[in-house]
Amino acid sequence: MMSAGGHHHHHLNPHGLCCLSTAALPAPDAPPSPSPEPDAAAAGAAVSVAGVLHKWTNYGRGWRERWFSLHDGVLSYSKIRRDAAAAGDEDGGGGEVRLIGGASARIGGVRRTEKPVGVVCLKLSAFRESKSDDRRFYVFSPTKTLHLKTDSKEDRVAWIEALILARSFYSLRSLSGRITFVQSDVSVSTARLRNRLHQEGLNESLIQECEQIVLTEFSSFRKHLKLCYEDQLSLFGSCRHHFEEGKDASIIQGPLTRNDFSSSRHGNFSEYSTTESDEFEKQDGGELTCEDESTFFDAADYFIESNNRSSAMLSSTSCDEGLLDIQMQDSSHLVPQIERRSKLPEPAEKERGISLWSIIKDSVGKDLTRVCLPVYFNEPLSSLQKCFEDLEYSHLLDQAYQNGKMGNSLMRILKVAAFAVSGYASSVARPCKPFNPLLGETYEADFPERGIRFFAEKVSHHPMLIACHCEGKGWKFWGDSNLKSKFWGQSIQVDPVGVLTLEFDDGEIFQWSKVTTTIHNLILGKLYCSHHGTMHIKGNREYSCKLKFKEPSLLDRNPHLVQGFVEDNDGNKASFLIGKWDENMYYSDLDTSKVKNVDQLKGASLLWEKNKPSPNPTRYNLSSFAITLNELSPGLQDKLPPTDSRLRPDQRHLENGEYEKASTEKLRLERRQRMSSKLQDNGWKPRWFEQDSQDGTYRFKGGYWESREQGHWDDCLDIFGEFSET
Questions:
Q1: Domain presence at residue 524
Q2: Can you tell me the distance from the alpha carbon of 478 to that of 465, in angstroms, rounded to the nearest whole number?
Q3: Model pTM?
Q4: Residue 275: its pLDDT value, please?
Q5: Does the keyword Lipid biosynthesis apply (predicted)?
Q6: Residue 522: which domain range?
Q7: Boundary residue ending a domain (175, 209, 234)
Q8: How confident is the model over 613-647, as pLDDT tens digits?
Q9: What is the pLDDT at residue 240?
Q10: What separation in angstroms does the CA of 617 have from each of 348, 611, 651?
Q11: How crowded is residue 515: how many other Cβ atoms within 10 Å of its Cβ?
Q12: What is the dihedral of CA 379, 385, 386, 387, to 10 degrees?
C-alpha cells in the first residue's frame, strides 16, 4: 500500500484485524487512568519543552534545522518556515513551554513552523548519545531512528534529561483497555476419518487411536497458533492510540518478537544509554525525506517492549485464512523495513565516450581479465558486489526452506531452481563491466530486512578467485568462482569455474555451477549478453534438477528461454520448468520441452518473476537492488574494514561522476595490483576464508562479524592506500 507521499508502508494482515473484537477496545470517551504516583504526574506534566535541533535527512540535504516539541509523552518535529508571517501560540498544547538552545530564541514567541511531519511516542522509544560527538544523540522507536544534533553539549544534556523525565512519567500510565485472548469455539470433526477407516476394515480401538492422534495434533497446532497470533497483535495492543488518533499507521511494520530480543547484542534498551562506537550511524543515509522516514536498525540491535505483551481476543467470525497466514510466517525474522537509496549521486562531470575497439583490438584471443580497460567501461560495483547481486531474490530460498520444513520436497527444489535462474535477471542491457577486486578486497552486505548477511573476499589473484558466504532464514549459501574469459573480436565468452552450494538447516544440500555467458556486438550493433548451457542442480536427498539455457541464434524469436525438469533418484520426472532468465519461471506437470513459451501450457504456476526496473537506472542500467550495494551511510565507514569495496577510491569517484579522479586512482591501484602476484608468492593467505585440503575449495572460517562488532581490523591491510615497492 502506498502513502500519499509515495512511500511503502507495511500494515497488519486485514484478516488478522478482522479478528479483533471491538468490545476489547476502550470506548473513545473512556476516562484516562489515574496516575499511580501524584509526584510523577506533576513532574511529567511539567515536561513540555521545545527548541531547534539539527536533524539528519539524507546525503543530498545533509543536516537540516527542525522545530522539535516534547509534550504529553510525544516528541514531534516540524519544518521551520523562513518567513515571519505566521504567528500564534508556541505549541498549541497549553501551559508553559521551556525553550532549549540559543537558536530557539530566533523563533521566540512567533511560531514559524509548519504542521508536524513526524511523531515519536516515548512509550516505545529509547535514547542514546554519541560518544564521538558531544552534540549528537539518537532517538529510537519501532518506526524510525532520529539522528539529532544540538548547538552545544549543554543543550544535548538538557534534551536527554527532558526525554528521560517525560518517558519515565509516560511509562507509569497504562492503557485504559486491555485486549484479551479467549478460545474460539473451533471444533474438529473426525467423522469422515472414522467412516474411511471403517471402510478399510480397521477395528474400533485402532480407529480411536487415529482419532486421538488427529485431535492431539490439532490441539498442538491451536496452541502454536495462539502464540503466533499474540506476537502479531502485541504491538497493536500497545500502540492502539496511534490508530485512534489517525496518526501514521506505519508504526506497525512488523512486530519484533522475543526471538529478536533474545538474540540482540544489547538486550532490551534502557531508557537511556550510551554507545562507544556510534554503531547506529551506519543507517543514517538512504533516500530519506524530512517528511517520511522509514526504520533504521543495526543488524542485531532490534528492541521490544517485552514486558508489556497484550493478548488478543479471537472473535467467532470466520477468518481462517488470515490466521493461517499468520501461523505460516516465521515471526522470529519479522523486522521493519529499512529505507535504502533509490538512485546514484548526480555526476559531477560530463562523460566523454571512448571507442571500445580502439582499446581491445590488440587483445584478440587473450584472457580479458588481464586486459586493463579505461574506467569509462566500468560500472560503480566490484565483482564482489556482483556476487551479492545474485541474491536479490533470496526470498525464494526462504520459501524453499519453509516448503521442505512442511514436507514438500518437490516445491523446495523448484524454488531453488527458480533462485538459480533469477541471478541472471539483472544482467540484461548492462553495458559496463564491474571492477576487478584487489587481492584481499572484501565486501559485506547486512540486510536485516531480508534476513540475510553476506560476505565475500578475493582470495587469489592468479587465478582470479572470489569466495563468498551468505546466511539466511534457515539456509546457508557459499561458493568460490573463477571467471575464464576469451575475446573473439565481436564477442567475449565468459566461463565460470566453481561450485555453488546451498545447505538448509535440516541438512538438505543442493549444488550447481553457472552456465556460460557471452557478450555480443563489441564492435558493431547493440551490445547484449546471453547465457547458455546446461545447469545441473544436484541434491543429496530425493530430487535433482536439470535446466537448459537456450543458446541464441540469428533466427531465434524466443530468446532467453530456459527449460528443464525435476527428477527423483530413480530418474522419474516429477515436474517441469519453463521461463526466461530475464522475466520469470513457471512449473507444470506437463512436459515443457516441446513448447516455446509458457503461454502454450495450461495450468502452469508461477515460481518467480523479475522485479520492476529502477526508475533511475543511469547509463549503467542498474536495478533498484544494485543501486543500494555501494551505498556508504554516515558512520558505516568507521565500522568497515579498510578492505571493503565501498572504500575503493576509483569506484567511489566513478559513482560520484568524478571521471578524471576515477581514472587516476584506477591506474594507481592497477600498479599496486601488479605487486599482488609477488605478495601471493611470498605466502599471503586470505584473511576470512581457508582452502579445503581435500577439494581445494574455499570455505568461510568465521570471525568477520565478531571483529566488526569489536572494530578490530588491526590485521587487515590498507589495500587501497599508497604502496611502496621498497
A1: yes
A2: 13
A3: 0.56
A4: 39
A5: no
A6: 356-710
A7: 175
A8: 999 888 899 999 999 999 998 778 889 999 999 99
A9: 44
A10: 17, 13, 17
A11: 22
A12: 170
